[in-house]
Amino acid sequence: MVFIYNILTSLYFFSVRLASVFNPKAQLFVKGRKNIFKKINESVDKEQQIVWFHCSSLGEFEQGRPVIESLKQKHPQYKILLTFFSPSGYEIRKNYAGADYIFYLPIDNRRNASKFIKAINPKMVFFVKYEFWYHYLNALQKKKIPVYIFSAIFRKDQLFFKWYGGFYRKMLQKFNFFFVQNKESKELLNSINIKNVEITGDTRFDRVYSIASQAKNIPVIEAFKQGKITIIAGSTWRPDEELLIKFINSENNKELKYIIAPHEIFIENIERIEKAINKKVIRYSQANEQNVLESQVIIIDNIGLLSSLYKYGDIAYIGGGFGKGIHNVLEAATFGLPLFFGTNYHQFNEAVQLVNLKAAFVVNNYSNLENQLKTLLANKILIKSTGEIAKEYVVSNHGSTIKILAKCDINLSVK
Q1: Global confidence as pTM
Q2: Do 114 and 125 fall into the same domain?
Q3: Neighbours of 123 (CB within 10 A)
């Protein structure tokens, strides 16, 4: 089975190299790994005490961040080495100040894994949520380096739990401990005789709880809002935008304000959204505290503002529900906003729970969106009480980071 795994991994990398001829993301994937070991050997002192964190992409980084920063604060003697699999994470967070070293993860094969572990010589390793790389896990186990996974979530349809998933179950056996999000994940692992499991929840709650207390003021947005009810659409894709724009264009309430933060901010997409809206619209990059007063819609055409923007919202629409899946709902929930999103949300435990709590509303089509929004907009008290349910959900679920570090602290404290 290792032979098949190696072939599949090689084929994947080969296909990415082919795609890099015309795909910018694939180009970054390949370019970022060029001479990777030279970069690592030139910058990393393996005599230092290093804790390695690995994240697949940006979402996993946000889950890992509370643990990284808490560990660094509690154990400043350790250097933090952070790796990403995807350009979506690395390219945005390659200058993250909380880590001492940041790299792409070399492709998983026996040679790379051995070279990488030898080069960084980690004291301890954390994988965030996903990512199960056989050769890295094998190399760590051979060297008896503790490896943990946190904010992990497992589903019964995964290969680990199939009758033919023996190879993948062996990968799980190489982890020292599992910090999982929910009871189902623990029971699934127990069912394949993995007992080193604790339910500690999702560290994203800790991250967004922190965001709410540290959100920066944005004077242009304050001027734009003018104390009016504001709907914020975050990380939207075209199907989301088409529904929202139809509502914006049909709604004659001038007391409403709209902030649209598209997932894709290339100029053609921004122009498409602008042209489709019949209200006064302005881009964030062109806005100031004077000209923004005349606008009813502002389009966010940069990256990094969204988590702070929710501070100014009254209702949030989270994008992605008509595609591969919704984006982060917790960033809006922590500010006490009622949530709307499309139908593809069931794989996100927090979204399911917020729907069950009636703090979030699922949108099937335009008529559904219009009816639900108008019901909420007609009652400011309902907006507030619904948002408070969302906020309390975040508050009651934070604290995962403390539990994780308490369990790992014995290994960190021993020199």
Answers
A1: 0.83
A2: yes
A3: 20
Instruction: Answer whether 297's CB lies under 8 Å from 280's CB.
Output: yes
Backbone angles phi, psi at 390, to 5 degrees: -60, -45
Q: At what angle do helices 24-31 and 2-19 cross, to 10 degrees?
A: 120
User: If we measure between CA atoms, which residue out of 339, 331, 379 comes closest to residue 357?
Assistant: 339
189 and 172 assigned to the same domain: yes
Query: Is residue 10 a part of any domain in this protein?
Result: no
For residues 77 and 145, membership in a common domain is answered with: yes
Residues 79 and 155 placed together within one structural domain of the fold: yes
Is it the case that residue 414 has pLDDT exceeding 70? no
What distance in Å separates the CA atoms of residue 28 and residue 273, rounded to the nearest whole number? 28
Pairing of strands 122-128, 147-152: parallel
Residue 240: pLDDT band with limits 50, 70, 90: very high
Q: Looking at the predicted structure, is the pLDDT value of residue 415 above 50? A: no
Structure tokens at 355: 């729907």
Task: State which amino acid sits at residue 82.
Answer: L
Confidence at residue 373, expressed as pLDDT on a 0 to 100 scale: 96
- Residue 173 sits in a domain of what CATH number? 3.40.50.11720
Contact call for residues 215 and 222 (beta carbons, < 8 A): no
